[in-house]
Write a structure and sequence with these properties.
single chain, 217 residues, alpha+beta, Nuclear Transport Factor 2, Chain: A, 6-stranded mixed sheet, globular
Length: 217
């Protein structure tokens, strides 16, 4: 009888200890899950400056990026003002690196010759919804200025795993020498779309396509 009692007591203790360990493990798992979720869902915060001046050039932000895709586009404006052409190249995802290098080499040469954008004012930067850039015409029948003609081809061409189309409303002014040469897009207020994305080989947002500039003036 005593042996039976001892056996039952031992089994009861084993059950109690097992339940206790299980609860403790469950609580640890939940803690880890919360920590991981917190890290993944950590909200984006823009940490850059809203007014940058370099010599006679400047970048002013009246609106700031709300996500990394928008910040990637903003960097293109920033590096143009700071004349950091190598960073501008790194910010692009175009597979035709050689062509991009030539274009940026020409921009750098023009900059040294006094031909450059003197200032940008970013009035608004926003990530478009598919309905905004995928429909050629608005509900009233007029052409949609946000329509991005070949965005699907771009996504397919570069095998983008994630992508956003970012629109920027900005004002630009040229240097004196640049204006004297009559630039295609002179001083004024413009809009432009950018395709920003990631690939399976690169989890960092980069610019894969520059849409046409347009003005609503």
């Amino acid at each position: 009888m005593k042996k039976l009692f001892l056996v039952v007591l031992i089994l009861l203790m084993i059950v109690i200890l097992s339940v206790g360990c299980s609860k403790e493990k469950s609580q640890e798992d939940k803690k880890t899950e919360v920590e991981n979720t917190s890290e993944i869902e950590k909200p984006y915060t823009f940490k850059g400056e809203t007014h940058i001046s370099v010599d006679d050039r400047s970048l002013v932000l009246e609106d700031v990026p709300k996500n990394m895709a928008e910040e990637t586009v903003l960097k293109n404006f920033l590096y143009n003002i700071t004349s950091e052409f190598s960073k501008m190249l790194d910010n692009r995802g175009d597979e035709d690196i050689q062509n991009s290098e030539i274009l940026l080499e020409n921009e750098e040469k023009s900059f040294k010759d006094g031909i450059y954008i003197q200032s940008y004012i970013i009035h608004e930067i926003s990530t478009l919804k598919e309905k905004e850039y995928n429909e050629e015409k608005l509900d009233n029948g007029k052409l949609n200025p946000l329509y991005y003609y070949d965005w699907k081809e771009c996504v397919k061409k570069y095998n983008l795993t994630e992508y956003e189309i970012v629109n920027v409303n900005f004002t630009q002014t040229h240097s004196k020498k640049s204006n004297e040469l009559g630039p295609q897009w002179g001083d004024g207020k413009y809009y432009r779309n950018f395709i920003v994305g990631k690939t399976a080989d690169d989890n960092v947002y980069k610019i894969f396509d520059f849409g046409m500039m347009w003005s609503r003036q």
